[in-house]
Fold:
Amino acid sequence: MADAYAILTRRSDFLAANSGLRVARAGFVLLAKGNAGLGARAGITVTKRIGNAVVRNRMKRRFRALLRELLPEHGLADTDHVLIGRDGGVERDFALLRSELVAALGRARDGKGDAPRPHRKRGPRK
Structure:
């Protein structure tokens, strides 16, 4: 079965999505940004801050399953969707993550994103 969405792979696409609508939930942050007719596309980001490789890969598998299930019906047309894993998201109940993603996609469809994050100064990298 072919997915109803394309996969984001280029860093520039992820950076572009970062300037779009942001909807934060306890287990993830959803970024949504229109992509000028390229269809529905999705990407997943889970940083090392979340855990080791086993934890990050488990979270990505859960996110891929959610996107495969929900994006065809609830996703926005011609939009890039990026899920960013948050700490504790891997332990959350899958049904709860599903309902949170449906609610986040609904808010994105209505154009109701969260307030922009305050810019923080970055210190030296470790």
